[in-house]
Write a structure and sequence with these properties.
Distance between the termini: 58 Å
CATH architecture of the largest domain: 3-Layer(bba) Sandwich
CATH class of the largest domain: Alpha Beta
Largest sheet: 6 strands, antiparallel
CATH superfamily of the largest domain: FAD/NAD(P)-binding domain
Strand order of the largest sheet: 16-17-18-19-15-20
Number of domains: 3
Number of helices: 20
Helix content: 25-40%
Number of strands: 24
Oligomer: single chain
Radius of gyration: 25 Å
Length: about 600
Amino acid sequence: MQSIQYRFDVVVIGAGHAGTEAAAAAARIGAKVALLTTNLDTVGQMSCNPAIGGVAKGQLVREIDALGGLMGQAIDATAIQFRLLNLRKGPAMHSPRAQADKKAYQFLIKRVVEEYPNIELRQELADDLLIERLPDGGQRIVGVQVRGSAQYLAPSVVLTTGTFLQAIMHTGEAKTPGGRAGEGTSAGLSGSLERLGLRLDRFKTGTPPRLNGKSIDYAATEVQPGDDRPQPFSFLTDRLEQPQIPCHITYTNNQVHDLIRANLDRAPMYTGQILSRGPRYCPSIEDKVVRFAEKPQHQLFLEPEGRATQEVYVNGISTSLPRDVQDQMMRYIPGLEHAQIMRYGYAVEYDYCPPDQLLPSLQTKAVTGLFLAGQINGTTGYEEAASQGLIAGANAALFVGGQEPLILSRDCAYMGVLLDDLVTRGVDEPYRMFTSRAEYRLLLRHDNADRRLTEVGYQIGLVPTARYDRLKHKEAKIAEAIELLEDNRIEQVSGTKYLCRSEVNWDEMCERIPPLRKFEPEIAEQVQRDVKYSGYVARQAVQITRQRRHAQKRIPTTFDYERIVGLRIEAKQKLSRIKPVNLDQAGRISGITPADLALVLVHLESSTD
């Protein structure tokens, strides 16, 4: 039977957080995009927790927004609670977080994608990747085969399959094919990737039970309200006006722990039923009880899933224990003694592609024009997925247009840290972003993401003129305020030097220099941080300059490490596999020593003489 063929510039497979951002980014740059999903009713769905942001993750969302992405404005419009975390620490550690109305968020993302210029959203099941063999032995993508004898032809494809590649769900001894409760699995693409020469491995993730809120005794729990003056995620959102809904906190206890220990012989992670690694920083309750046996309790957050539902997500008790054990656990937890479980917890095992097989652009090394983003790269989290999706989608469109890829450095974005960690160091557990991963986190605050990235996005078409003009107006106001500080002297020093003193705040500066009162709080905040941390920033700038000197020493993709006399076998193997694009990236590969770099540098310089 003859295949029906559709032609696009970019095809995106999967319409979760990575896929929707990828499609939108490619479309903003001007590509004609097909966004394919197995189920139109799950576009933008939050598979697990009903929240966006958090420590380091909030910075990622602000960066997505600064580059014109969807996530920030969507959560601002649909959240039910906002909190700024780590306020007792310095500004580099402040991170916004919001509880989402899961269905409202999902429906908004779906509508935005449906209305987006240059995107066609279609319900299709991708079965195979179509490639063309090149004369030099390489291969390039030419499209996607979908079930029903149709082909979507495109010179660029972005794969964002989440946890659905050969996925199996576990609850106790029961095993069910599927990457999310009530949905199936994608088996064909795993075989297709392996045939194209990509390595696959397995990870696992888990999810907790969801409860009926009417059966919870909230009087026996602690209330956790939102912020009195909530801060938005998007730089385009001027204020948040929707009413907030409180969350609640309760705790496990020794009765719960004893019950879990007594049933470890029925826990898939301890019987050998699950062999894959999960996220170490977000363990199941079974793991917590075993690994932290000395702890008498573990904190649980009761998070409402929306305004129009009673469903409550129990954050902190991810589990794949059998249903009867999950039922019994609730009987021992304060406030949950009569709780009704609406959805039982489960674990999911799924295929992923180790990300050291990718270029920094997220294009695969094995297949030209094929990009991977999201959990297929061994990451976890909505924000990490959306970040990769935006970069992969943008680069897919730039690739089609014959332009240089967008590659963010570690000193300009958390996104840059994320992508560099993935492609340079790989993963041995599901990757999650932390502030500690960023060497220059004082520069990468959530509040200045637009000043770091919006112009970058504007230059390649990711950001419209109106948003860029808004940034220029903001920068002009900041410059005006700093000039005003410089032009006024207080106690024999300039206003900027006086403001540098730790005990001096903006209110005092306004008393001493009254014209400062005209600047809105957002401008005042940026000026204070620019001034107070100027010394630290200057020191980091020196480090960045040194690092960029290394980065400028590019390494050709055809460079043969086997020819370097004296280079260790381990170094040859790692450098040949990862193919770093410059000396700076080579130095961040695990196990590569300064002596190895010196040999590579000598060989590079001799080969260019």
